[in-house]
Amino acid sequence: DAMVIQNPRYQVTQFGKPVTLSCSQTLNHNVMYWYQQKSSQAPKLLFHYYDKDFNNEADTPDNFQSRRPNTSFCFLDIRSPGLGDAAMYLCATSRDDRGYSTDTQYFGPGTRLTVL
Amino acid sequence: RKEVEQDPGPFNVPEGATVAFNCTYSNSASQSFFWYRQDCRKEPKLLMSVYSSGNEDGRFTAQLNRASQYISLLIRDSKLSDSATYLCVASGYSTLTFGKGTMLLVSP
Question: What is the pLDDT confidence band of residue B105, given thresholds at 50, 70 and 90?
Answer without folding.
Answer: very high
